[in-house]
Amino acid sequence: MDRGPRLRSWLTLIQAPGVGPRLVARLLAHFGDPDAALAADATTLRGLGIPAAAIEALRHPDAAELDRLLAWADQGGAAILPRDDPAYPPLLAQIPDAPPVLYVRGDLGVLSDPQLAIVGSRNPSPQGAETTRDLAEYLAGCGLTITSGLALGVDAAAHRGALAAGRTIAVLGTGLDRIYPAVHLDLARRIAEVGALVSELPPDSPPRAEHFPRRNRIISGLCLGTLVTEAALGSGSLITARLANEQGREVFALPGSIHNPLARGCHALIRDGARLVESAQDILAELAPALGASLGAVPPLPGAADEGLRPAEPDGDYQSLLAALGHDPVAVDDLIRRTGLPADSVSSMLLLLELQGRVSSFPGGRFGLGPGTRA
Predict the structure, then answer these.
(1) Nearest to 241 by CA among 211, 272, 263, 262
(2) Among candidates 327, 333, 360, which has minimal Cα distance to 346?
(3) 348 vs 146, higher pLDDT
(4) pTM for the structure as a whole
(5) For labelling, which of 70, 104, 251, 372 has a CA lying 20 to 30 Å from the CA of 176?
(6) Would you state the torsion angle of the CA atoms of residues 76, 82, 87, 92, taken in this order, to the nearest 10 degrees?
(7) What is the side-by-side strand order in the sheet with 275-276?
(8) What is the spatial distance between Cα 328 and Cα 150, in angstroms, rounded to a whole number?
(9) Does the structure show a pLDDT above 70 at 239?
(10) Which of 6, 53, 32 shows the shortest CA–CA distance to 24?
(11) Structural domains for the chain
């Protein structure tokens, strides 16, 4: 990255206290570029709503801090991208509060790839995590770059699935030298090798609660659409979905059992207009016009020819669950008692079996064998 005066001007702007993305956008709309903003007199800056402390910082920036940031960008594989850099992701630049500057480790080219955000619970059911990974792997194999937030649970499953077949981007709520959670240090390294780590925060910024909701607008802003695979009501992933909708991007949600609390957030999104997803093909069909020639050859769906979320023939616990259904509709509590399986596993398994047509739901929260399973 060029260490010239222009990048230094961008960094001076964003280092000023109280100057966030919207104030930077206001300055650029008025002056045209950061150099002209820095040369403006204090009266003009005050008239644009710039706080007194920020004006002082613009006049007398912290030279040592600017030198530190520029030196960080000189490391191999690291870069600082201001809004006017050709490598700045074009979709992100369209949102009203786009970050004035992005810190990046990895391949800058991946930032302009067609992307799908996959987000959800930090504590997904085992089946929810597996479904997320399967979908991410399949969609990455089709040419979509999978973008998420490096959090525990669904985020990690999405990144790992994408790494098995393609590329992925992790947007952090910390600086890029402070990987959070620390258990994902190795995952972050693998992502940087084939994709990119991205943050709007300086490299050593610690994890703070207020960073993560703002991080979510970058995840959705980079992407053509956002998929929520499992989320309770009140989940932070619903913030990402709301932001995607406000940004004019597609929102997708995977339905679940009415007995699974981690499906309620997805059901709320569907009620509010999110596109219901039963297979990866639902996402590809919706995004096809925007993807155009960038969509790779679509590989065969794994397992069932029209579904792709589970192997064609269930085994193990799935067979036990099917056997426990018997010939008459059964309540979920009875299935848990008959199989000895955890409640969240039974709920998730019923969802996948219902999507495959092997199980049908009945009034009163009961389930029975589907038409394709009955003898």
Answers:
(1) 272
(2) 333
(3) 146
(4) 0.80
(5) 251
(6) 120
(7) 78-82, 101-106, 196-199, 168-171, 145-148, 115-119, 225-228, 250-253, 275-276
(8) 44
(9) yes
(10) 32
(11) 1-71 (no CATH), 109-294 (3.40.50.450), 317-369 (1.10.10.10)
